Amino acid sequence: MDDILEHFRRTGALLDGHFILSSGLHSPKYLQCALAMQNPADAKVFGEAIADKSRDLGIDTVASPAIGGLIIGFAVAQALNVRFIWTERQNGVMTLRRGFSLRPGERILVVEDVITTGGSTRECIAALEDNGGEVVFAASIIDRSNGTADVGVPRISLVEMDVPTYETADCPMCARGDIAEKPGSRK
Ligand SMILES: [Zn+2]
């Protein structure tokens, strides 16, 4: 694969412009990782790249927070030839369900598609540790925190990005008179 961000732009997973995010904030970038992994061959390439950076860690199991982490987590587990499990929200709390269980001290790699504040990775780690796992490493394709998100374990990403967000009143693009658009409205 060529440059990762170039791939994201080509698949529409990364848009440059002037966007209204679901939070209501404005941003010059919009990221939707799912669009970059519609082709399983592309997800496989990302999975292998993360696996290459974590191959020496003695990982027993890859785990991801659903839904965003499922495809990339599966791809990393496939590349490492280890099992794959996930956590999901139940009444708002990240939980290990579906009969998944962990051995005491089982060494786990937590994988997400994109880390913004690290919140869902931290919640996933807490759910795994509550069930006896030992999370030794975390990884994502994209790090939107530009390296600043702290998830409590060592972490890597394939690409670090700075994605500024603005309140409407402080948005420099609005100040220039640009019209903000909702992602997905562009044809
Ligand atoms: Zn704006």
Describe the structure.
The strands form two sheets. A six-stranded mixed sheet has the order 5-4-3-6-7-8. A two-stranded antiparallel ribbon has the order 1-2. α2 (40-54) crosses α3. It has helices spanning 4-10, 40-54, 70-80, 119-130, 172-175, and strands at residues 14-20, 26-31, 61-65, 83-90, 93-96, 107-115, 134-143, 155-160. The mean pLDDT is 93. β4 and β5 form a beta hairpin. The protein is an alpha/beta fold. Bound molecules: zinc ion. Zinc ion binds at residues 18, 26, 168, 171, 173-174, 180.
Entry summary:
By secondary structure, the protein is an alpha/beta fold.
SSE arrangement:
Blueprint: H1 4-10, E1 14-20, E2 26-31, H2 40-54, E3 61-65, H3 70-80, E4 83-90, E5 93-96, E6 107-115, H4 119-130, E7 134-143, E8 155-160, H5 172-175
The structure holds zinc ion.
